[in-house]
Amino acid sequence: MPRLHITGGQRLAGTVKISGAKNSAVAVIPAALLTAAPVRIENLPDIHDIRVLVDILHFLGVKAVWENATTLLIDASTVAKTQAPYELVKKLRASYYFMGALLGRLGCADVPVPGGCDLGPRPIDQHIKGLVSLGAKVEVEHGLIGVRAKKLIGARIYLDVVSVGATINIMLAAVRAEGRTVIENAAKEPEIVDVANFLNAMGAKIRGAGTDVIRITGVKELGPANHCVIPDRIEAGTYMIAAAATGGDVTLLDVIPKHLDPIIAKLREMGIAVEVGDDKLRVIGNTTPLAVDIKTFPYPGFPTDMQSLAMVLLTQAQGSSVITENVFEGRFKHVDELKRMGARIKVEGRTAIVDGRTQLSGAPVKATDLRAGAAFIIAGLIAEGETVISEIYHIYRGYEHICEKLTALGAKIKEIP
Ligand code: UD1
């Protein structure tokens, strides 16, 4: 397995272009199954998760052809199967979107229980509750979720927990249901708005995406569409933290600054300068950031996906910081690896206390999940000496050309076989 080798101590400077949002793209691709008409999707990130989704489309009998590295043409008129293969589905969480999309298009789907990052228990009861409310029968047997409906009928669905995946999955099925669906306590992430915009471009009638009440009037058929995926706010946040942690000066291009508000606010609270433009922003690091407390929450709260990354930055702050993880109960698996690099962090339940002013030292570490892997890269950038990260397939699942982008900013990072 290849590993990443990082020599610490370099200050990042320059510009970096942010790619399309993974968490939007992984829903938009299955959503294309909802129409038999051709669909063109631009600004897809060139990452492993997307390649797996395209493999699943091919397996299902869908024509999907790359126009260039980031634009995909999909023709789902030929979809022939409704069972997604375990070997591919287990590689990513978002394969659960094939349930909603295949159900909406063909009235049935058999999807293995999805894989993805191990962040502790990740139930999909709210997805199932939503699909059942729309009239589907759901059976889970031998690791396969079977979803069937002769006819989908709009319903009022109140989510018990705010879930990105459940909100999108219900939207996917509801656009083709008869009548009106209302999703209450819906998630408000920008990726949900992006998927709704794509579905509306295909002729769906979705109102209220981005608020906690989404109203959908079902339509009989969806048509062709062209869609450009929004920028990845978590990739952007990663480079912002990398700039801040290395005391660097980095300008991010192609971002939607509004989506980054919770991250910008936290960095400014730490005394780090962030200059905001229309579609770019500049982060100017500071060698003595202030300690802050962070609580993760659904959007527009501080993103759980940024928690491990922020933790690395806080090891450099003046004083102790408290991080409370409110979204995923098992999302502190990176702490033990960071401790091996010298970080002083104490975890109690959902809370981590991070001591600042710690000189990290390079060490061999294992990427425990996608975002933790990126956090270890930043830890390696500020550590004394050499860091070698193994199990980097996690990182490649979600970060486009991360070595090239960091190298262009002055990092010493290379893949070793
Ligand atoms: C998505 C993102 C992931 C991000 C997370 C939270 C994708 C592909 N992944 O994951 O990067 O970290 O949102 O912003 O978009 N829950 C239930 N029952 C359900 C569904 C969720 O109890 O049926 C719980 C989860 O265990 C978790 C919380 O709700 O505690 C939020 O999860 P959810 O928003 O669904 O996360 P994902 O869609 O899996």
Q: What is the CATH topology descriptor of the largest domain?
A: UDP-n-acetylglucosamine1-carboxyvinyl-transferase, Chain
- Low-confidence stretches at least 5 residues in length (pLDDT < 50)? none
What is the level-2 CATH architecture name of the largest domain?
Alpha-beta prism
| Strand fraction | 15-25%
For the secondary structure, the number of strands is 23
Mean pLDDT: 96
Structural class: alpha+beta
Query: What's the CATH superfamily of the largest domain, by name?
Result: Enolpyruvate transferase domain
Q: Major sheet: size, sense and barrel closure?
A: 4 strands, mixed
Residues in helix, % = 25-40%
Compute the gyration radius: what is it? 21 Å
Number of domains: 2
Under CATH at level 1, the class of the largest domain stands as Alpha Beta
Ligand inventory reads: uridine-diphosphate-N-acetylglucosamine
